[in-house]
Each structure stands twice: as structure tokens, then as C-alpha cells.
Amino acid sequence: MAERPLVLVSVGTDHHPFERLMGWVERWLDARAGSVRCVVQHGTSRPPRGAECHDMLAHDELQTLMREADAVVCQGGPGGIMESRIAGRLPIVVPRTAALGEHVDDHQVRFTHVLATHGRIALAVTEPEFAAHLEKALADPEGYRAEHDESAAEATAVRFGELVRGVVARPRRGLLRR
């Protein structure tokens, strides 16, 4: 029996649930009837049925799975995107949105649109786009390979993402103290 293709899905380490992505994964897997092995790092989101689920994965385990995966799906933060590219995978990226309570603002939406414009990611904003990218990645894995090319622009984007994450994570205080 041939080995099933491996799809890795990671929501990253943000504390906001990402139920939209979990639903997309679940419905996509339901249509595959066990023909795909799917490992999901779901964080605070509900684990999708039909997948091997982990709330968190050790960094080295996540890197190994990224290298082994036929397709990698991640949220729109710079860490997961860059880790995927370093592992040689063009990530299928679903940005978190503030309107759905998936993040505090829409910086991932803006960030991922810039990366998609430059061919650094496969952007999936809708469920049909998500499913289409997964189907293409499994049909033609070489089309979803990436060479790690840490350009100055990418290094800057990663650093910027780290800075933004640090600012957003800080507790808010009033401008004036009494």
C-alpha cells in the first residue's frame, strides 16, 4: 500500500482560537475519506476531526514535519511562514482576521498580501482557495517547494513581525499616569 500524503497544519502560538481554519481542515479531510495523513497543531482551537491533533508541537518536531510534509498550511505570522520556507515548502497561508476574533488586528492580512504578491506564499483567503491550493500541492508537490533565500527583505519582514508581536503583546497603559 502506498504511503498517504502528509499535510501539516499549524496555527502558531497565538492564544486566539482559529476556528475558521479548523473548520476548513475538517471539511477538506471529510471529503478525502482517510486518503491523507493530516497533522494539526491547533493551539487553543478545537481539534478538527480526522486529523492527528496536538495543541502544541516541540519546535524540532514541527521542523521535521515541515520537511516531510507534502503540503504545509500555516497562519499568517512571519515565524511559521519563514520556518516553512526554510524547510523547503511554499506555505499555504490563511491569515487570521480581527473581525472573527482570530487576532487583535488585521496585520496578518496586510502582511500576507504583500508576500503573496511576491510569490513567497500561496495565499488562501477563502475556503475554496484553501481547498484548491491543497489539491494542487498534493497533485504537484514540486510546485509547492521553496528554496530558502534569506534576502534582506525577508530578514526585515521577519524582524518586523517579531517587533509587532512584541508591541501587540504588551499590556496597554494610559498615556498619562497620575
Automatic annotation (TrEMBL):
Where the record annotates domain Glycosyl transferase family 28 C-terminal, the positions are 8-150
Q: Which SUPFAM superfamilies does this chain map to?
A: UDP-Glycosyltransferase/glycogen phosphorylase (SSF53756)
Classification via InterPro entries: Glyco_trans_28_C
GO MF, one term, reads: hexosyltransferase activity
Q: Keyword annotations for this protein?
A: Transferase
The regions listed as transmembrane in this protein's record are none
Pfam families hit by this protein: Glyco_tran_28_C (PF04101)
The entry's protein name is UDP-N-acetylglucosamine transferase subunit ALG13
- Name the species this protein comes from: Sinosporangium album
Q: What is the lineage of its organism?
A: Bacteria, Bacillati, Actinomycetota, Actinomycetes, Streptosporangiales
